[in-house]
């Protein structure tokens, strides 16, 4: 059992929820942000997770989330940036707003939270704490259908390097760049077949693959400023 805290943004469903459940099972205290009420949020509360509603589309909400964590006066073992949004140019004609939205969630929120919360992370000796950014495999190849989204994730990838320099050696800063990890409810078989064919491994590995990558990063005493590409070889195909 540990008294150190894991902070996870966007933990109400899917990968964020899996990470919150995992660290609860390991005895960590967990603080999780969520944008809207979902069954997963209620389940986390029942486990004792501190769930804080925060819509990171607002600067005010980002700052308030940081203040809420500061008021708990905890030592943060890991800050995991999972909160994300997904939108494409073909769904809007307000491209300026689209780019602003993607940069807000994927760049400004992690930037402000890293600056606000890193003082609550142990740094008296090397590799005491972790910041983990979730980027995307498109950082390596771009996307003609999700230009703003891809650009924002690339900015987050670069920010990994800058914070790794700023916070070393006490805090390691790395990123995870996933492609297809799991399907959504309602995805039909034709879509699944097409999606699986895009990678060399041709599987949807599930949330545990991401949990394993997070554990690998946290267990390392030497790796910082790096990205783990969980794309099943998609970038090579």
Helicity range of the residues?
Answer: 40-55%
Distance between the amino and carboxyl termini: 43 Å
Number of strands: 7
Largest sheet: number of strands, sense, barrel closure: 7 strands, parallel
SSE run: EHEHEHEHEHEHHE
Shape: globular
Radius of gyration: 17 Å
- Count of alpha/pi helices: 7
Q: Which band does the percent of strand residues land in?
A: 15-25%
Low-confidence stretches: none
Going across the major beta sheet, what is the strand order?
Answer: 3-2-1-4-5-6-7
Mean pLDDT: 96
Structural category is alpha/beta
Summary tags:
alpha/beta, 42% helix, seven-stranded parallel beta sheet, 237 residues
Topology:
Layout: E1 5-9, H1 14-25, E2 29-34, H2 39-47, E3 50-53, H3 59-72, E4 76-81, H4 95-117, E5 129-134, H5 147-167, E6 171-178, H6 189-196, H7 207-219, E7 227-230
Parallel strand pairs: 1-2, 1-4, 2-3, 4-5, 5-6, 6-7
Helix pairs in contact: 1-2, 1-7, 3-4, 4-5
Summarize the structure.
By secondary structure, this protein is α/β, with parallel strands linked by helices.
């Amino acid at each position: 059992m540990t008294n150190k805290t894991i902070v996870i943004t966007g933990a109400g469903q899917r990968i964020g929820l899996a990470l919150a459940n995992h660290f609860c099972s390991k005895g960590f205290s967990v603080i999780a942000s969520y944008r809207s009420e979902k069954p997963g949020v209620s389940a986390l509360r029942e486990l004792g997770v501190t769930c804080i509603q925060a819509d990171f589309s607002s600067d005010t909400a980002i700052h308030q989330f940081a203040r809420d964590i500061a008021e708990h006066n905890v030592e943060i073992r890991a800050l995991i940036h999972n909160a994300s949004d997904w939108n494409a140019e073909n769904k809007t004609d307000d491209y300026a707003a689209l780019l602003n939205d993607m940069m807000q969630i994927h760049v400004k929120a992690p930037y402000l939270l890293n600056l606000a919360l890193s003082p609550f992370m142990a740094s008296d000796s090397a590799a005491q704490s972790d910041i983990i950014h979730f980027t995307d495999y498109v950082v390596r190849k771009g996307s003609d259908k999700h230009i703003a989204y891809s650009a924002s994730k690339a900015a987050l990838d670069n920010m990994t390097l800058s914070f790794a320099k700023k916070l070393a050696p006490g805090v390691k800063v790395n990123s995870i760049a996933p492609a297809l990890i799991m399907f959504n409810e309602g995805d039909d078989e034709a879509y699944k077949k097409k999606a699986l064919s895009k990678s060399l491994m041709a599987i949807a590995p599930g949330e545990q693959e991401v949990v394993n990558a997070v554990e690998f990063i946290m267990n390392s005493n030497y790796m910082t400023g790096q990205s783990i590409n969980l794309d099943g070889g998609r970038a090579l195909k």
